[in-house]
Amino acid sequence: MEHFDTPNELKQRLSAVTAARFSKTPEACTDAELCQALLALTQQLAAARPAPAETKNGRKLYYFSAEFLMGKLLSNNLLALGLFEPVRDLLKTMGRSLADLEEYEPEPSLGNGGLGRLAACFLDSIAALGLPGDGVGLNYHYGLFRQKFCENKQCEQPDPWLTPESWLLPTGRRYTVAFGGFDLDAVLYDIAIPGAQQCTAGRLHLFDVADPAPAPAQGIDFDKRDVAHCLTSFLYPDDSTRDGQLLRVYQQYFMVSAGAQLILDELAQRGFAPETLGQHVAIQINDTHPSMVIPELIRLLTARGLPFADAVAQVEAACAYTNHTILAEALETWPLEFIGTVAPQLVPILRQLDALARTRSGDARVAILDADDRVHMAHMDIHFTHSTNGVAALHTEILKTSELKPFYDLYPEKFNNKTNGVTFRRWLQVCDPALAGWITARIGDGWTRDAAELEKLLPFADDDASLQSLLEVKAHNKRRLARLLQSRQGVKIDPDSVFDIQVKRLHEYKRQQMNALWVIWQYHEIKAGRRPARPVTVLFGAKAAPAYTMAKNIIHLILCLQTLCETDPDVRPWLRVVMVENYNVTWAEALIPACDISEQISLASKEASGTSNMKFMANGAVTLGTMDGANVEIAQLVGPDNIYTFGASSDTVIDLYARGGYCALDHYHRPGVEYLVDFLLSPALLAIGDAATLHALWQDMKYKDWFMALLDVEDYIAAKTRALAGYEDRAAWAKKMLTNIARAGYFSADRTIAQYNAEIWHL
Ligand code: 26V
């Protein structure tokens, strides 16, 4: 850990930076300048750290991911450097606060949601465990779009996160990537990832084009055919057109070709021959976006003289694949013709791999190339890696028994589960210092190194004073969120109301629309004179993919309900709906510590794991959820008294899909449901919203409802009613909070990464 003998020494280092940059003392700097100076100082210290020592067997890990949703780095890295408290205290003596300065740090949003944030948590844990391993990805100039609400609808604006203060370190390294018809240089930048409790740092390697396009004049549109300049412009370019899809393939090949060259370079530098790749390299393929690393490495190894079969064996020994979803529409397949355009050199290899796979199994369902010559990326991954893992126990079971069953029958030994985890450094220590202090005051700080120690809190479930002060911590965090909402969005919320929070990507399977139906139910109850025991504030945060109409329609509904409740004097004192604009990691860090009820209401079987459920739990929120993803494991850990579950089981849902047995209209025609759905077309709502949008949504809910919100909505209302009643017994609720925190240790990403290492990477 970085060590400054005295606070004075820290102050001197900071003064040197502010003097050099701004010719000022730290005291004379504005918050923005002080933020820049601290970023620069932290970056210097992180970058100066060496990589972890090579392990005895000489294996090194490369975590390939198209997304790394890092969030702001200042506080997190101060913590890893052992400087979080010294800097906070120093700033305090200057009458400044770290939280105020942090407002000026741009947030790198190089990810869409759970998958990208998981990759960021994993890098943090890999570094904290001192494992030799780096991330490999792309340096998008615009991260996920910035969301604005205009006339109760989502508008997208570009997110230019790159500034001179960004954490990117030029490395001077570059590789040439050969595309069909032209070559492009991949320039390597690094972000240093200091490991907590270590003196070492890992690296996030981000590749960029040498001559990136300037900012788009307007909106988030750009020329998708100008690959040489636009390849790294945007995270997930809109792929509703052929050009957009092709650009995705260009991005993927650029990332893996440069990454594969880097791996082979480092292998040689470490003194190992290419034919020992499988022994000395571990590659984790995060979903199918980096899957072309398999044929690319085979190509590079054969070019170095390895026979094809040996190259395949080495790659299979090095690579492992993580599956993050069972949604059919999210499982990537590319027309072989696309690969022929982007990377024609891979086409013969893909054909050979397909032929090889067909010798292992005659089952057409496990082929790599289908009858339409589409490449099934996940199929290639399973055949030609040594490990396929799901991300929660239920998810892995579903992969084995239904979604990927033919593969499981073929390769049972390859399948394994790695239940996701989150870094408690960012998601508890940094974002919830009040709770972190409350925990440490009771069980010491061992939990910051080993989250399993949180179990030591369990005996405090019978300590009234501790329970009382736990409630005060939550109240403090709720007031903090209320202040933030007031300053960022001009909305004033009541910290004494129940904070019921659903924050995650907007997707029909996550069923924000079912939560909206609850709002409609509660609205009617209040109108009928049946008020809740205490006011409820329902908070939403969600971005919809720009081309995903139904998701945008649901955002419209939520924003209309927000206006409806705000402007009705009967309702507003009892029910508020607040949708935060531009939900991102920074918002999450304020929302999660303030949450009372954590909404995890996906249709059972559809949410592979979820990770916000873990963050909420660790911050003392009680889950209201379906038995889906990691909710199942949360329920097992906390027991039925400390979670509110409801809804159809995954078995029931899988069976309904299998036999086409779900009919939305049947469920609509129930007295408790029909009026909720029809409210979408009520004069009250039509006076606020857009008739065509509300009508489209109404029609979809009534006649389609592909994710079965109407199947579960009554059970959901009943469960939420139980949860809100439970909240009123404050002592009993505090026990639930405490039990959730105490049992959350299992969901530390340090545990997950230790398992990846013990069972897959063997570093
Ligand atoms: C991707 C797409 C792309 C096309 C349109 C529809 C669609 C729907 C879902 C996805 C998800 C891609 C994979 C993903 O982000 N999975 C998430 O991974 C998290 C980390 O493992 C996990 O916690 C979430 O449950 C899972 O949804």
From TrEMBL:
Pfam families: Phosphorylase
Source organism of this protein record: Candidatus Gemmiger excrementipullorum
Keywords: Allosteric enzyme, Carbohydrate metabolism, Glycosyltransferase, Pyridoxal phosphate, Transferase
Modified residues annotated as N6-(pyridoxal phosphate)lysine in this record: 615
Single GO MF annotation: pyridoxal phosphate binding
Cofactor field: pyridoxal 5'-phosphate
Record-given protein name: Alpha-1,4 glucan phosphorylase
Entry's Gene Ontology BP terms: glycogen catabolic process
